[in-house]
Amino acid sequence: MTEIDTSVPHSARIWNYWLGGSDNYPVDEAAGDAYTAVFPGIVTIARSSRAFLGRSIRYLVTEAGVRQFLDVGSGLPTVDNTHEVAQRLAPESKIVYVDHDPLVLAHARDLLSSTPQGVTAYENLNLYEPDRILEAAGRTLDLTRPTALILSGVLGHVAGHGQARDLVRSLLAGLPSGSHLSLNEGSRGTDPDYEQAQDAYNETGAVPYFLRPVEQIAAFFEGLELVEPGVVSVPLWRPEPGAATAPIGQHGGVGRKP
Predict the structure, then answer these.
(1) In this predicted model, what pLDDT tens digit does every residue of 103-114 receive, in sequence order?
(2) pLDDT tens for residues 26-52?
(3) In angstroms, rounded to a whole number, what is the distance separating the alpha carbons of residues 95 and 69?
(4) In percent, how much of the chain has pLDDT > 90?
(5) How far apart, in whole angstroms, are the C-alpha atoms of residue 167 and residue 95?
(6) Angle at 197 between CA 196 and CA 201, to 5 degrees
């Protein structure tokens, strides 16, 4: 396992800190606090992204009938991980997590607490290896059956939009008709303060995360049948009754492969 560098802030650990997790270090807390001092709304964005993930999984299980999930760039385990949400509703669900971060690997045991009826697996692979991801996932999942591809806040680490779009297409190409994509990413065009804070963060030397215009996020769903209400700011995607629905700089949606 690659040595964990605790001297440099890491985006996955900072995200974990904003979500209220404990798998982070003082350097990550300092970077997270510096970010929130400039833009306190980042905590809302992080938690809204996580809430969207949960609602999309509930839709996929209860309305779309999906029982297999491929979560690429899963990040550090916190609360309501993909397998927890899916197996709470359908205990027989199978989940494969993919990440290459050494800290995520160190905590992979927390992503493997499957129900007896279901299965969870962890693959230590890079987002840039779609063929290897599909090959590895096929050892746990039956990729001739509908599968949900989960991409939650990971494509922003891919600098080029064309390359990010190609990675999504390559992963979807290995999944059959009836499969779904659940995706949400940081966006431009909603909150200038967020954009300024993220641009400043990217200049610190930490692993950058690139916000994308909403039309580029929507482009990841080309060729898919969008589930209503389409690609929207994540609080607006099938919100729970009484939940806050003010738009934020995080957009996402769910699409079905014809």
Answers:
(1) 777 777 666 788
(2) 988 998 898 999 899 999 999 999 999
(3) 5
(4) 73
(5) 20
(6) 115
CA distance 76 to 101: 9
Q: Model-level pTM?
A: 0.92
Measuring CA to CA, which residue among 85, 207, 194 is closest to residue 150? 85
Dist CA 211 CA 200 (whole Å): 12
Query: Number of structural domains, the chain?
Result: 1
* 6 part of a folded domain: no
Whether 66 shows a pLDDT value over 70: the answer reads: yes
Domain that holds residue 50: 11-238+246-256
Cα angle 186, 191, 194 (rounded to 5 degrees) comes to 65
State mean pLDDT over 218-233: 98
* Lookup: tokens for 222: 């080309």
| Gyration radius of the chain's alpha carbons | 17
- Residue position matching structure tokens 């990841």: 220
Average pLDDT over all residues of the chain: 92
Q: What pLDDT, on a 0 to 100 scale, did the predictor assign at position 14? A: 86
Distance of CA 80 to the CA centre of its chain: 13
CA 223, 180, 20 angle in degrees (round to 5)? 125
The torsion of the CA quartet 177, 158, 186, 44, rounded to 10 degrees, works out to 110
3-state secondary structure of 233: strand
Q: Where are the beta strands (DSSP E) in 112-226?
A: 119-124, 148-152, 180-188, 212-213, 225-226
Q: Which CATH number is 25's domain given?
A: 3.40.50.150
Residue 5 lies in a domain: no
How far apart CA 86 and CA 95 sit, in angstroms, is 9
Sign of CA dihedral 187, 58, 92, 173: negative
- Three-state DSSP class for residue 181: strand
